[in-house]
Design goal:
single chain; alpha+beta; Rossmann fold; Nuclear Transport Factor 2, Chain: A; 3 domains; ten-stranded mixed beta sheet; globular
Length: 448
């Protein structure tokens, strides 16, 4: 692997005698790691990632596309270093309290699904992505994870200025020059240049400045990138502190020495850098700040209310769910919102471009309820209300390709299809045939 000359010179100066090890590790394949969904899968018999309760290393990279449990949302394929978010959050935030959390640059969903596994049911996550096509991918992955306490938005960072003092925690996984991905993604190296580093640093500063007002007093900002250079990391944290008229506290994150994570302390700023020759993971940087200035919390008054379903429909739909929800009707789509967040979600829907909120439960057609795919994957689904059909691997893959596996012969009605007891979606049994209700835009196109 031939590094860009300017990058190599900088890293040689940074790493000194460690440079040969750094260079050599880039000739080795990346590690494959996954993070399980604790709401759907309790454990794996695999080597664990030290800094998270949910992460595991795989001996080799399988075809995840051909694993039905992947589509059921039982795990997420994620790079190990970035799972250190768990330590940053656990050590600086009281996770037993109800929190409002923003994941600002969230697609494709690794940080957001991790946050959902760490937050309690009384906490609300806003998962945002500025690029519309990527927001759709984010929404899909959030739905597969199955939590109801999340809103997916498609907004520019500056739009969050109107949410003054709203969030207890903000995660900014900033778009960066991608130096930490060179081993995993050679295309990142092809696109690298010193000019691009400078442009990324400027964009990151704009993002931080735009979103900062939305963090409340004593709120926590977790800033991370997948790059090594100081311009995009420590210098941006320093820039935020220097250009603020208020006090910002940099927080230390404890770690075990044998983890191989490098702690950097510069001008009172703590940062944590992951080098692939020291950890079983790719390049990564993370830093945690506490906002000490006062931020007046925004009022959540709004004249526009979300339309509720009729009492009759609500009684039918609530039987499908494990906990009480506020049920709203968007055209013919019934959406379940956790009751404790109905005010916040209504207000967010009036102030942001919301892609998905709560759980889509059913489509209402001529007083008939047609179950939505999202509720099949939801942790809120009351499975006792539905017929279930367990599928073999071949049947499950046929279902995920939106083919019509031969199941439920002679039966009628909607049924939940499962694989290894994990829901995959719905079918409509029509006696002599079935309708496969798997979303067409999610279908598996890979053979095998």
């Amino acid at each position: 692997m031939q590094f860009p000359e300017a990058f190599q010179k900088r890293m040689q100066a940074t790493l000194a005698e460690e440079w040969p090890a750094f260079e050599a590790i880039h000739q080795q394949p990346s590690f494959t790691s996954i993070r399980l969904n604790p709401g759907k899968q309790k454990a794996y018999d695999l080597p664990k990632i030290a800094w998270t309760d949910f992460g595991y290393f795989l001996p080799e990279r399988p075809s995840f596309t051909l694993d039905p449990t992947f589509h059921a949302g039982t795990y997420y394929v994620q790079e190990a270093s970035s799972m250190f978010l768990e330590q940053a959050l656990k050590q600086t935030v009281d996770l037993t309290k109800p929190l409002r959390v923003l994941d600002l640059c969230a697609a494709p969903g690794g940080k957001s699904t991790h946050l959902l596994s760490l937050l309690n049911r009384e906490s609300l996550l806003v998962s945002n992505e500025v690029i519309r096509s990527r927001a759709s991918i984010l929404s899909e992955n959030i739905q597969k994870w199955g939590n109801a306490n999340v809103v997916v938005t498609n907004n520019d960072p500056k739009d969050f200025q109107r949410l003054n003092g709203f969030f207890d925690v903000m995660v900014v996984d900033a778009p960066c020059s991608g130096e930490g991905l060179f081993r995993k993604d050679p295309k990142a190296m092809e696109e690298w240049s010193e000019d691009n580093v400078a442009l990324c640093a400027q964009r990151q500063q704009r993002i931080l400045a735009d979103v900062w007002p939305a963090l409340k007093q004593d709120g926590i900002l977790i800033y991370c990138t997948c790059t090594y250079n100081e311009k995009e990391n420590e210098e941006n944290i320093g820039w935020l502190i220097q250009n603020s008229t208020f006090k910002i506290q940099s927080l230390r994150v404890e770690q075990n020495n044998d983890w191989g994570v490098e702690e950097i302390v510069k001008n009172g700023i703590y940062g944590y850098r992951f080098f692939p020759h020291k950890v079983k993971g790719e390049g990564f940087f993370i830093s945690v700040l506490r906002k000490k200035d006062e931020a007046e919390e925004v009022s959540m008054r709004t004249k526009t209310q979300l339309p509720l379903v009729s009492k009759k429909i609500a009684e039918r739909v609530n039987d499908w769910l494990l906990h009480p929800h506020q049920l709203i009707l968007l055209d013919d789509l019934i959406v379940a919102l956790p009751e404790q967040f109905s005010t916040e979600i209504n207000w967010l829907a009036n102030n942001l471009n919301v892609v998905t909120k709560g759980t889509a439960v059913a489509t209402l057609k001529h007083e008939k309820l047609i179950p939505e795919h999202a509720v099949a994957l939801s942790l809120e689904l009351n499975r006792n209300q539905f017929t279930e059909i367990e599928l073999s691997l071949d049947q499950a893959l046929a279902y995920l390709r939106k083919e019509t596996p031969l199941i439920g012969e002679g039966q009628k009605g909607f049924a939940l299809v499962t694989y290894k007891n994990h829901p995959l979606g719905w079918v409509n049994l029509l006696g002599n045939r079935i309708n496969n209700l798997y979303p067409a835009n999610w279908r598996v196109r890979m053979g095998g």
